[in-house]
């Protein structure tokens, strides 16, 4: 009876809701979601940013008393999942080329693939791989795109590790820091997560603005 009740609670999880995922699967769920979102095209809809931030928040013991996570295992799961997933997506892209994306019927996935290819062409491999970590959907499709477009293994690995560490550990620690400093922050969790997601886009927005200023300056000189 107890086993049936537990299984029922797992099957009832809402995969689009960070707290629901964490309540059902804990730290292990974070690692699995990070791997699926960054390594498997079917994971493009998963809530990576909000999951990392919420998980960090729940390590403080100040939010959602029904769920309590430990910071060190959480960071390990988040980082390993994000890095392994990205490398897996790249290898799939090298082997399958663009066939997987070409067969997809998802409009969001195809649009994300277009943005990923544009990032690679406009900013070069290193910068695009790092920036993509902060853009939902794009961080899913850029990895197989990089493999399909022939980005060198060493270049991809170095920069996906750099971007993955900043993204996964950074958002987790941001949630932990906020939960440690603001009492009852869980009352404002939804607006705070929205702000964090917006803030995670800052590197990309800053780079786009910088690129446009450089282009205008070049036109003025020409």
UniProtKB/TrEMBL annotation:
Pfam families: VTT_dom. It is a multi-pass membrane protein. GO terms for cellular component: plasma membrane. Residues 46-176 form the VTT domain. The chain crosses the membrane at residues 21-46, 71-93, 156-176, 188-209. It comes from the Bacteria. InterPro entries: DedA-like, VTT_dom. Keywords: Cell membrane, Membrane, Transmembrane, Transmembrane helix. This is Membrane protein.
């Amino acid at each position: 009876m107890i086993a049936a009740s537990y299984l029922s609670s797992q099957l009832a999880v809402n995969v689009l809701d960070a707290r629901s995922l964490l309540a059902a699967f804990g730290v292990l769920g974070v690692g699995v979601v990070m791997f699926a979102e960054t390594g498997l095209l079917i994971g493009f809809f998963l809530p990576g940013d909000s999951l990392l931030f919420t998980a960090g928040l729940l390590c403080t013991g100040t939010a959602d008393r029904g769920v309590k996570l430990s910071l060190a295992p959480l960071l390990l799961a988040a980082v390993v999942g994000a890095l392994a997933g990205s490398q897996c997506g790249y290898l799939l892209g090298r082997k399958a080329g663009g066939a997987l994306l070409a067969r997809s019927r998802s409009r969001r996935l195809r649009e994300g693939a277009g943005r990923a290819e544009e990032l690679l062409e406009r900013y070069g491999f290193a910068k695009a791989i790092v920036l993509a970590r902060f853009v939902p959907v794009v961080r899913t499709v850029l990895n197989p795109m990089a493999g399909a477009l022939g980005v060198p293994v060493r270049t991809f690995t170095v920069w996906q590790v750099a971007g993955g560490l900043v993204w996964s550990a950074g958002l987790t620690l941001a949630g932990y820091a906020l939960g440690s400093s603001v009492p009852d922050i869980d009352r404002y969790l939804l607006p705070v997560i929205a702000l964090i997601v917006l803030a995670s886009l800052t590197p990309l927005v800053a780079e786009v603005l910088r690129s446009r200023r450089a282009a205008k300056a070049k036109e003025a000189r020409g």
